[in-house]
């Protein structure tokens, strides 16, 4: 008897019983009538049960040649794989792959060879995962893991056609030492980018100053005046300095129109007791008189005259300093002493040969060639 048959019998019996109760209350039946109605209700229930009962089958279904039995549940098998190295898009940086592989064995012809379904399933899943990871850089392991979750979440037939495989609980990571190495490389690349930008900026600034601002004296003056619009007199006072800067930027002498605006450098030895005499103009006549007929003195005087220096020339002191430096470089100590005597310096007061090195030209002046 099915559950539906029982429910219908009970439902009809309850309905008839309720009708009899209502009818008895309205008609005020005596006691014997209630007993008779109860017996009638029992008879109605039995008849309803017999009428609604299904007819028995002439032959049991279990004994038929092809019984209609429920289909057996599909058997699925699974296996966990862990820490399998899969390549990334960068050589020598491999992901660590872990997942649970599930497979289903498909029907095969009678003459098909025996297989290891677990091995085929794991190989199929790894081949599918390898295609995905090889397209991602090693520092994108989290993104690649989510993509693998979607790619491996579907049952697919393997290349042999014998099984269907999928994977879940996918985990993809990068070893700790590789992550540290990639972080260091990333920092170095960022520093290189910053350094390259700074170098390009410096190079651009040098080109701007050399080819535009200090192209000539006029450009330098205009550039300074554009930054100091209200200091016209200051621009005029700095023309000589700007002319020197422009000439130095091109490794050329100062242009002739601006030579008279350039102040010659002067060297003053503050610690020397004869610094006051050293700043005085050199008198060629006095040097000749104190020479006592020495041929060296005549050679120095002739050299000064050959270079066009007069007794009042303000550059004669600087020229003498450079002569002293040149003679000391070549080890001509006698010439150094003689030049110092000619210009009012006693060699005894200058010390030994180590003092010659103090006669070097001032900073910024190149030694004579």
Describe the fold and architecture.
The protein has 369 residues and is of the alpha+beta class. It folds into four domains: 3-54; 77-174, Tetrahydropterin Synthase, Chain A, CATH 3.30.479.30; 214-261, no CATH class; 275-359, no CATH class. 52% of the residues lie in helices and 10% in strands. The chain has helices at residues 3-27, 31-52, 117-133, 141-151, 176-213, 217-227, 232-237, 239-249, 275-278, 284-289, 295-306, 316-329, 333-342, 347-350; strands at 77-87, 94-105, 156-157, 163-173. It has a four-stranded antiparallel β-sheet with strand order 1-2-4-3. Helix 3 packs across helix 4 (141-151), helix 6 (217-227) packs across helix 8 (239-249) and helix 12 runs antiparallel to helix 13. The radius of gyration is 57 Å and the shape is elongated. The N and C termini lie far apart (128 Å). The model is unreliable at 267-298 and 347-369 (pLDDT under 50).
Could you name the key traits of this structure?
single chain, 369 residues, alpha+beta, Tetrahydropterin Synthase, Chain A, 4 domains, four-stranded antiparallel β-sheet, 14 helices, elongated, disordered C terminus
